[in-house]
Amino acid sequence: MISKIKILMATQTGSAEEVADEVKEALEEEGYSVDNHDLADESDLAFLSDATFLIGVVSTWGDGEPPDDAVPFFELLRKSPPIGLGEIPLAIFGLGDSDYEIFNGCGKELEKELIRHGAHSIIPRVDCDVWYEDELLQWLNDLRRTLSS
Ligand SMILES: Cc1cc2nc3c(=O)[nH]c(=O)nc-3n(C[C@H](O)[C@H](O)[C@H](O)COP(=O)(O)O)c2cc1C
Fold this sequence. Notes:
Distance between the termini: 10 Å
CATH superfamily: Flavodoxin domain
Bound molecules: flavin mononucleotide
CATH architecture: 3-Layer(aba) Sandwich
Largest sheet: 6 strands, parallel
Number of helices: 4
Structural class: alpha/beta
């Protein structure tokens, strides 16, 4: 059983937080232990090493950038030498809007950086457009299947 699932969440107007809460609730119902981490509140990378499964639920703002309050965390992630996450499995659900030039830039960057730090993407990243409920249900099913296998 996967014991320590960490959800890395970044939001500007609350949608990613709602999704992260929904994912946490769904996985806890299956008996998993899940912690939500608002990346706006994280000032170092050490907490990542303590996980056995990482989930990213982040939105994209500006011109393909992270939500304002999460910018310092992403700067840290970019600047830090690889911390050696030891192939921790990773799944990313990005919220965005395909009308913007850099669609889901924050989700893409989070995945790229966590892989550079040693994580291993285990299900395909979802780049979600404005309406995401159907994709979220599908992705949650994929996630449950992956976690139980
Ligand atoms: C001013 C503004 C800038 C945005 N920039 C982007 C962008 O560059 N790329 C993208 O994919 N989505 C962009 N979006 C769409 C948001 O990521 C999307 O609405 C998301 O669902 C918001 O989630 P949140 O409430 O968790 O912040 C932007 C939205 C606004 C209002």
